[in-house]
Design goal:
The protein has 289 residues and is mainly α. It folds into two domains: 28-72, no CATH class; 78-287, MetI-like fold (Orthogonal Bundle), CATH 1.10.3720.10. The chain has helices at residues 28-55, 74-80, 85-116, 120-134, 141-151, 157-181, 186-193, 198-209, 211-227, 230-235, 243-248, 258-287, and strands at 251-252, 255-256. It has a two-stranded antiparallel ribbon. A hairpin with a 2-residue loop joins β1 (251-252) and β2. α3 (85-116) packs parallel to α6. The chain is flat. The N and C termini lie far apart (80 Å).
Length: 289
């Protein structure tokens, strides 16, 4: 008679480990997320808030903005009274708008060609803009300086517009290609079958579908030109004052006029904020295409 085998010991599974967010109290994950968003927003907004406070402080108080209660709006009046300041605002706005319109006229058709056509011409064009985009940005400046001098367009609108349009075409053609890649071409094929020409299908079908992306691209082009400094510094002089160059003139051999520079920067922020606020929904929709 054989002895009965002893019973097997009971195995106890360890309790499952809770994740970090699951271990928080009810509502803790949402509170932590809100705190993280608030912290990131503060990091981005703090320089602008400090800039605004500096623009309201007198010249003697810019190095201790967080202390003192003396504020003034005289900095804005003094900044606007600077020579060529109002003309610089107008020139920057005009060049940004013209560069955006001219760039879109080429970039939209360029992106459409890269998206819809295959062959040696689109491939060669893609290679050209790829190579030009790989060239370091600062290396364009010296050749452009001599070219604008030779053509007699130095310190003119055209002397600034042509470099900006060239840069926009090289960079934003890729973005526009991505917008058209996200649009189903079946409607264009249907339009071609119904008798539309290729240009007719482009203007009546493809282009209306790309309006959100086109608006987002226009805003990016405008902001890029509005904030650009290097071309404006080296391709203009006294005839065509530009806002970014005028702001840099507050740094001179006697020191930095932080209060006037901050006031000018705040005024320069206003048009950019208006453009961004107006086209925010289009930028979000365009980036989702």
């Amino acid at each position: 008679m054989t002895a009965a085998a002893p019973p097997a010991p009971l195995a106890f599974a360890p309790p499952p480990r809770k994740g970090f967010f699951a271990a928080l109290a009810p509502g803790g994950a949402k509170a932590l997320f809100a705190l993280a968003v608030a912290g990131i927003a503060f990091l981005f907004a703090f320089p602008v808030l400090w800039l605004g406070l500096t623009s309201l402080r007198p010249a003697s108080g810019v190095y201790f903005v967080h202390r003192g209660t003396e504020f003034t709006l005289r900095n804005y009046a003094e900044a606007l009274a600077q020579p060529n300041m109002l003309e610089a605002f107008f020139n920057s706005f005009a060049i940004s708008t013209l560069a955006t319109v001219l760039s879109l006229g080429v970039t939209v058709t360029s992106g459409y060609m890269l998206s819809r056509f295959k062959g040696p011409i689109p491939g060669a064009w893609f290679s050209v803009i790829y190579v030009l985009r790989c060239v370091p940005y600062i290396s364009w400046v010296l050749p452009l300086f001599f070219v604008t001098r030779q053509l007699g367009i130095f310190d003119t609108y055209w002397g600034l517009l042509l470099p900006h349009v060239a840069v926009h075409i090289c960079f934003f053609s890729w973005i526009m290609k991505g917008f058209f890649d996200g649009i189903d071409p079946s409607m264009e094929y249907a339009a071609l079958i119904d008798g539309c020409t290729r240009w007719g299908a482009f203007f009546r079908v493809a282009l209306p579908s790309a309006i959100p992306g086109l608006t987002a691209l226009a805003i990016l082009c405008w902001l890029y030109t509005w904030n650009e400094f290097l071309f404006a510094l080296l391709l203009t002089s006294h005839k065509t004052p530009i806002l970014t160059v005028i702001m840099a003139q507050f740094v001179h051999e006697l020191g930095m006029e932080w209060h006037l520079m901050s006031a000018t920067a705040i005024m320069a922020l206003v048009p950019a904020l208006i453009v961004t606020a107006f086209g925010q929904k289009y930028v979000i929709r365009g980036l989702r295409i």
